């Protein structure tokens, strides 16, 4: 990583394309109200990803890592505040995290002394594994869990109960839930996304280190392949079922849809959360060994899309509108009643759309020799109830036979911070 | 420390060699242990004995690192489950070492802040440990602690170890 510099300039590893992207970002950064992520997406590479040298501003109206074109890699972490932590500890932690995140996302080391520039008699400031790596499109997104506003037994540790958004409740139980408490919940969360896994891990590792004594890691998840595209500049990726996923996702280039479905509005409130969102995280285990024995025609029927191109079974290419009413000659629906696309479709759910930003994961294998694989589902929406509606609709999803939800969490995502302020200032001040 | 084999033989022989020790071997280990302790005592009470400031602060850091790597996992005393006694002894040792350099560390504003934080975290860790006994009265066998209880201890160790790792640099002012 390069040394701190008041006006970061592209280093030698920046591609020509990256330079163009930065120039575009610099120019558009001044335009208020435009999602920072969308601005830099003007420099996609041939595969629809972003160049390794992409840098997204940390400060802005909204937090980055939501409408930012989904990076290829994820390290997600949930934290609990220490048992004796005070409101001041929470505020100081968020201030320290903000300062660190602002540096890390620009490709800088976590502190000014860095990995090798400090005292030889003290542990290095930065853990060092990202030395020499570019920013790699790193975004760091912070969130607040329901327990921050009051524990399950009603203790208001940080005098925040009165500021709790009414919509921020633990998710209800869904059919097919096999939740593991140690993989669920959390007072705080950090979503670190980057195009280089080492950069994402470096971010979570150093932010965890900053938190010691104030907050401790509760659970964390690595993701290796994005399963959604959040920009029209990106190709649609595939999940571990081998299908294109997120074709109809909300894209950064649809500002009206983003405003309608993703950002918390003034009418919705509370005031401190305006311009923020809600994040739902679900660790969904896929029983892929069984899935792999399912015949192609049945796989496609279960999804409601073709496996190759990803077009709807009602006809047309990947981006063709889905015709849920289409019937076959015998009168049966072309898109089956229990097909995934039907049950997840906005038409089935009163027009609800989620901004999905999930990742594939494989965490080794279980005791039976099956891959511990699946989808780490992440969705942003301006009301968690939207997720609940879609998830309830999916109760009869034919895919459920091959799915098991093992982790679950919901977080309020505060708006972005302006330079000089900290994430969470709107909540705490 | 040279010739300190006896100090560790009781534990390590169980790992390296599954056969139980014979009475003769135990006598031999015991004799060696007494001799090692005597040698240690002679060395530290010798008129020429000296330790540097960094030896002391690094000693405190090292004692806590031992807790974080070996004892918190319960692997060091796999057979006897007396990990918490070792744990508490290390914390005591680290606390004494810290006490010796605390005033020196606190000379600068930043150093005073660090020393205060270390003291707070020592107190917090000692409170968590005290739930399970004391060195005098003995501790709950480590295998009887739940994962959540072990994590609470681990969190307290991390909370102390992080500021403590800055102690040497602060004491030396380098």
UniProtKB/TrEMBL annotation, chain A:
PROSITE patterns: DYP_PEROXIDASE, TAT. Keywords: Heme, Iron, Lyase, Metal-binding, Oxidoreductase, Peroxidase, Signal. Pfam families: Dyp_perox_C, Dyp_perox_N. The keyword DNA-binding does not apply. Residues 236-417 form the Dyp-type peroxidase C-terminal domain. Binds 1 heme b (iron(II)-protoporphyrin IX) group non-covalently per subunit. Its EC number is 1.11.1.-. Involved in the recovery of exogenous heme iron. Extracts iron from heme while preserving the protoporphyrin ring intact. Belongs to the DyP-type peroxidase family. This is Deferrochelatase. It comes from Homoserinibacter gongjuensis.
UniProtKB/TrEMBL annotation, chain B:
CDD domains: Imelysin-like_EfeO (cd14656). It comes from Homoserinibacter gongjuensis. Residues 26-167 form the Imelysin-like domain. Belongs to the EfeM/EfeO family. Gene3D superfamilies: M75 peptidase, HXXE motif. PANTHER family: IRON UPTAKE SYSTEM COMPONENT EFEO. Keywords: Signal. It is found in: Cell envelope. Residues 1-24 are annotated as: Disordered. Its main location: other. This is Imelysin-like domain-containing protein. Pfam families: Peptidase_M75.
């Amino acid at each position: 990583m390069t040394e701190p510099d008041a006006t970061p300039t592209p280093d030698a590893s920046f591609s020509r394309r990256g330079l163009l992207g930065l120039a575009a970002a610099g120019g558009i950064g001044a335009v208020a109200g435009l999602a920072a992520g969308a601005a830099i997406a003007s420099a996609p590479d041939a595969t629809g990803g972003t160049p390794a040298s992409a840098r997204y501003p940390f400060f802005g109206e909204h937090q980055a890592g939501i409408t930012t074109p989904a990076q290829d890699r994820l390290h997600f972490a949930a934290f609990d505040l220490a048992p004796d932590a005070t409101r001041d500890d929470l505020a100081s932690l968020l201030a320290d995290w903000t300062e660190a995140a602002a540096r890390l996302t620009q490709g800088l080391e976590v502190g000014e002394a860095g990995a090798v520039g400090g005292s030889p008699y003290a542990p290095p400031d930065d853990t060092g594994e990202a030395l020499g790596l570019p920013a790699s499109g790193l975004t760091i997104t912070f969130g607040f869990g329901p327990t921050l506003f009051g524990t399950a037994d009603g203790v208001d540790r940080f005098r925040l109960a009165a500021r709790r958004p009414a919509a921020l409740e633990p998710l209800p139980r869904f059919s097919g839930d096999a939740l593991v408490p140690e993989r669920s919940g959390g007072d705080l969360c950090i979503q670190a996304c980057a195009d280089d896994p080492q950069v994402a891990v470096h971010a979570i590792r150093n932010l965890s280190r900053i938190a010691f004594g104030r907050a401790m890691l509760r659970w964390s998840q690595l993701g290796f392949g994005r399963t959604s595209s959040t920009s029209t500049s990106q190709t649609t990726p595939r999940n571990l079922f081998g299908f294109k996923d997120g074709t109809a996702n909300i894209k950064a280039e649809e500002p009206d849809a983003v405003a309608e479905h993703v950002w918390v509005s003034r009418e919705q409130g509370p005031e401190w959360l305006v311009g923020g969102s809600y994040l739902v995280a679900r660790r969904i285990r896929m029983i892929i060994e069984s899935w792999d024995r399912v015949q192609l025609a049945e796989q496609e029927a279960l999804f409601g899309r073709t496996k190759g191109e990803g077009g709807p079974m009602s006809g047309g290419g990947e981006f063709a509108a889905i015709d849920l009413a289409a019937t076959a000659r015998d009168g049966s629906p072309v898109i089956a009643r229990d097909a995934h696309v039907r049950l997840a479709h906005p038409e089935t759910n009163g027009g609800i759309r989620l901004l999905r930003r999930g990742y594939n994961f494989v965490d080794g294998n279980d005791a039976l020799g099956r891959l511990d694989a699946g989808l780490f589902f992440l969705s942003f929406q301006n009301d968690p109830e939207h997720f609940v509606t879609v998830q309830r609709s999916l109760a009869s999803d034919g895919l459920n036979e091959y799915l098991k939800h093992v982790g679950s969490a919901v977080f309020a995502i505060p708006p972005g911070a302006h330079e000089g302020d900290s994430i969470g200032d709107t909540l705490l001040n | 420390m040279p010739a300190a084999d006896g100090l560790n033989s009781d534990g390590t022989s169980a790992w390296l060699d599954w056969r139980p020790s014979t009475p003769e071997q135990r006598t031999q280990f015991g004799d060696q242990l007494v001799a090692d302790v005597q040698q240690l005592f002679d060395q530290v009470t010798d008129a020429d004995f000296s330790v540097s400031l960094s030896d002391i602060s690094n000693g405190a850091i090292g004692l806590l690192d031992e807790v974080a790597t070996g004892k918190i996992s319960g692997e060091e005393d796999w057979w006897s489950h007396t990990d918490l006694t070792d744990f508490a002894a290390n914390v005591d040792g680290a606390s004494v070492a810290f006490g010796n350099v605390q005033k020196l560390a606190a000379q600068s504003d930043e150093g005073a802040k660090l020393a205060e934080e270390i003291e707070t975290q020592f107190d917090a860790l000692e409170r968590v440990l005290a739930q399970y006994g004391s060195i005098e009265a003995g501790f709950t066998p480590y295998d009887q602690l739940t994962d959540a209880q072990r994590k609470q201890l681990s969190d307290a160790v991390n909370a102390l170890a992080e500021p403590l790792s800055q102690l040497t640099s602060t004491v030396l002012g380098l």
